[in-house]
Amino acid sequence: MLTIPKKLLLGSATAATQIEGGDLNSNWYHWSLAGKIANNESSIVAADHYNRYPEDIQIMSELNQEIYRMSIEWSRIEPVKGVWSQEGIDHYKDEMAMLLKNGIQPLVTLHHFSCPEWLQKEGAWVNSDTVERFLIFTGKVVLELGNMVSEYCTINEPNVFAMDTYMDAKYPPGHKDDIKSYFKASKNLIVAHLRAYKLIHNIRAEHKFSGITKVGIAHHLAHFEVDSKNPLTHLSKKLMDYSFHDLFTKGMIEGKLSMPLGVGYPEGKGRFCDFIGVNYYSRHIIRSTMNPSMLFGEVTVDESVPDSRKNDLGWEIYPKGLSIILKKLYKDYPLPIYITENGIPDVNDTKRAQFIYEHLKELVTLIEEGIDIRRYYHWSLLDNLEWNDGYGPRFGLVEVNYNTLKRTIRQSGKFYGELIKHRHISKEMKQTYNIKDVSYE
Ligand code: GCO
């Protein structure tokens, strides 16, 4: 039996590029044209959510979702530098209005990996002018959405974004082992967040928009372990924790730049997050420093992990890691925590319900221990474009048939919907959905 405390709201998360389709002005569309997505796939149709959002909100409502995290596509608001698209703005206003009408509270992400192609051509995040452009975009969105949205997530996973863009060549413009750009972009992302934090608060206060303004980030926190006593491996883990986690937590929460990004507090000392969003997926084993990028070591999965404890992309299912990272995070920063992403690619839908159960169990225990966890956004509502991995991985509570675009709620989606409704997982539910209490290490 598991009872979900009232304070923990439940819902799902998506990102515009991954589900919307139809946008010719985003850098990801151009990245698809260049053949950079698995199987030559393209962002152009995705799940056609841009046209089908009424149906998708209806599904969210059927699944009793209380909250929804979504992103606004910058290239739909500002398709050409300095030119606003009223069509794009009205679209998102309609979507917000419909969410609210269905009693679903939105959390809006302003930067979720994608940007307009014109910005990409200007160097995107390695160009420090992008900070200013991001603030102009942010100000416009916050003004336009007004009373409808009081919660914002400025930047999604700055660490993964910088790593996949400048070190691993997975995201546009696809640099390999470009450490200089990794740090340059990281600094700009941090400064953009700090300034956007203030801007959003100022605009909403000045216009007396309703709702308590809450601004935060969605930070990808992985659980790293080392697999040997080799001191180099330990050093590698330390470097990885520093450059992948700590630079960003210190930067975006405390406003402090650390080397090699810089020193001091570019926007003054303070607290720049009203909540900390955590995206958690897996445990990673750090093997050695002999990887070409040296600094980061090699990130792998423990070979002894059986397939039953891995997802379709081979990542280990490791709920305990969520507790470990949250305990540390809360000790360092006792701020409200939102789980802004947690999910599993599972095409056969045999592991997702169990995955949700195990991770929620960890969260409930932590809440009982006094950790202030307030939101759980499951990744994801729908099957979607898993960036450069294309449409293969199936993360949805709802299956999307990419030929017909028909939506079908998976068994795990039904399980999640019932769980939200009753805020309780009974013995019967466990039987129906084949949920087990397993012990795992
Ligand atoms: C993210 C990602 C999502 C991914 C998810 C699964 O924030 O990394 O933002 O877009 O699809 O994490 O890999």
Secondary-structure element string: EEHHHEHHEHHEHHEEHEEEHEHEEEHEH
Quaternary state of the chains: single chain
* Low-confidence sequence ranges: none
Mean pLDDT: 95
The N- and C-terminal alpha carbons lie at a distance of 21 Å
Would you state the CATH class?
A: Alpha Beta
CATH structural fold name: TIM Barrel
**Which percent range fits the helix content?**
40-55%
Counted up, domains total: 1
- Give the neighbour order of strands across the main sheet: 2-3-4-5-6-8-11-12
> Nearest-angstrom radius of gyration?
21 Å
User: What percentage of amino acids are in beta strands?
Assistant: 15-25%
Shape: globular
CATH architecture: Alpha-Beta Barrel
Q: What's the name of the CATH homologous superfamily?
A: Glycosidases
Number of helices, where a helix is a run of at least 4 consecutive DSSP H or I residues: 14
Q: Which sheet architecture does the biggest sheet show?
A: 8 strands, parallel, barrel
Count of extended strands:
15
> What are the distinct ligands in this entry?
D-gluconic acid
Explain the overall architecture.
Helix content is 40%, strand content 15%. With 441 residues, it is of the alpha/beta class. It has one domain (2-219, 313-432): Glycosidases (TIM Barrel), CATH 3.20.20. The strands form four sheets. The chain has an eight-stranded parallel beta barrel, surrounded by five helices. It has a three-stranded mixed β-sheet with strand order 7-9-10. Helix 12 links the parallel strand 11 and strand 12. The structure holds D-gluconic acid (GCO). Residues 15, 18, 156-157, 160, 279, 341, 379, 386 line the site of D-gluconic acid (GCO).
